[in-house]
Design brief:
The N terminus is likely disordered. A two-stranded antiparallel sheet has the order 1-2. The protein is flat and about 65 Å long. It folds into three domains: 70 residues, no CATH class; 238 residues, Hypothetical protein af1432, CATH 1.10.3210; 60 residues, no CATH class. 41% of the residues are buried. The chain is mainly α and 397 residues long. It is built from 18 helices and two strands. Helices cover 57% and strands 1% of the residues. The longest helix is centred in the middle third of the chain and has 24 residues.
């Protein structure tokens, strides 16, 4: 072989690079012209520095070609509040995902309760592992519907960063103490836009589609809640419920709070008797039924009515027997005391707040600064802070 690639003909390196470029550009094999080392002549990929597309642009072009017409491709994002120069490699949604993964709020999820507070067993879920399970389920549903899995992943990893210590028990206390209430989905948006620090200052400056999906991931069953503006956001809302109902059943059985015999048989008969069977049934049903809805002109991600009823039945069972049951209630009473004590303590001693939250208190009011500080705490940090304030040093040392 003659030409610029002759010296590497046997190495396969150039072929691999060209193959990847053509794949990213959305070219099929028959459009790689002339020979094994043919160039992607039907795309603006140049070898000698002439007009070319970067990797992000090629990914965006591929999305436009392969995603469902109902999907949200990165190239059609409504953008960020503060305009930024585009990345050469990552799409905007991939960039959002990476910003969340590298945030402190995301890392703290590993020490925040899912259901069982301060579990001694390493196998219980935490808020972080819940987030990862939501992401996995959502990406599977999204792939089945040919939606944008990068957007799905970014919303999934972001959706609970505003959760309090001690799960919904902490949320209930702050909701009662805060003027105007407290909701973790709204707080997640606040963390992403006001608390975390990014390259543009306060906030990570995420795209509108990600923030919308985070804000609207809550609400289920008979409660009417405004839907996300993208189908990807709607996938997260459904996947969140699929994940927590199933893994909370698994953890409750592991903790001895429930047994399989306690679960409503009519729900298991339809969904399956094992953890994996139930998730498989729910994921497949979501893909199949949502596909039918989209084909009929309905812009929605849903379960079929029988499967929806079975999932709601399990969810109602869990609320009655676990979330509001005697074991969780006893723990909830204890942690409620801790969080309420800390809230009132910092209202009386604002000088004890870290400087960042004291600045928020000056700008937005003392309650807001105290709430932001406490809601961001992990379980362990919250308990240790309570001990530091209430237990004399002589007893600790």
């Amino acid at each position: 072989m003659s030409g610029p690639f002759a010296s590497v003909e046997n190495s396969g390196t150039i072929w691999y690079i060209l193959d990847r470029l053509c794949f990213l550009a959305g070219l099929s094999g028959h459009r790689i012209l002339n020979s094994r080392f043919g160039l992607c002549t039907e795309q603006a990929v140049a070898v000698n520095g002439v007009e070319s597309m970067n990797i992000r642009e090629m990914q965006e072009q591929t999305e436009m070609r392969i995603l469902s017409p109902y999907a949200c491709p990165a190239a059609k994002s409504r953008g960020r509040k503060i305009p930024e120069e585009k990345c050469d490699v990552r799409t905007d949604f991939q960039r959002d995902r990476d910003r969340v993964i590298h945030s402190k709020a995301f890392r703290r999820l590993k020490h925040k309760t899912q259901v069982f507070i301060s579990p001694d067993n390493d196998h219980y879920r935490t808020r972080l592992t819940h987030t990862l399970e939501v992401s996995q389920i959502a990406r599977t549903i999204g792939a089945g519907l040919r939606l944008n899995t990068d957007l799905i992943e970014a919303i999934a990893l972001s959706h609970d960063v505003g959760h309090t210590p001690f799960s919904h028990s902490g949320e209930e206390v702050l909701n009662a103490l805060m003027p105007g209430g407290f909701r973790h989905n709204e707080n997640s948006v606040r963390v992403l836009t006001m608390i975390e620090k990014g390259r543009t200052g306060r906030g990570l400056n995420l795209t509108e589609e990600v923030l919308d999906g985070v804000l609207r991931h809550s609400g289920f069953g008979k409660r009417k809640a405004e839907e996300a503006c993208t189908l990807e956001g709607q996938v997260i809302k459904l996947s969140d419920k699929i994940a927590y109902v199933q893994h909370d059943i698994d953890d409750s059985i592991r903790a001895g709070v429930l047994s399989m015999e306690d679960l409503p048989g009519e729900c298991l008969n339809l969904l399956g008797s094992t953890h994996s069977q139930r998730i498989s049934t729910l994921v497949k049903d979501a893909i199949e039924y949502s596909s039918k809805l989209l084909q009929s002109g309905q812009y929605a991600v849903r379960l079929s009515p029988p499967v929806q009823e079975a999932l709601s039945g399990l969810r109602d069972f869990m609320f009655e027997n676990v979330y509001f049951g005697p074991v969780c209630k006893a723990e909830r009473d204890r942690v409620s005391h801790v969080i309420e004590f800390l809230f009132r303590y910092y209202l009386k001693h604002p000088d004890k707040l870290p400087g960042f939250y004291l600045e928020i208190a000056r700008e937005e009011g003392l309650e807001r600064g105290v709430c932001d500080y406490i809601s961001g705490m992990s379980d362990n940090f919250c308990i240790n802070t309570f001990k530091d304030i209430t237990i004399p040093r002589s007893f600790v040392d």
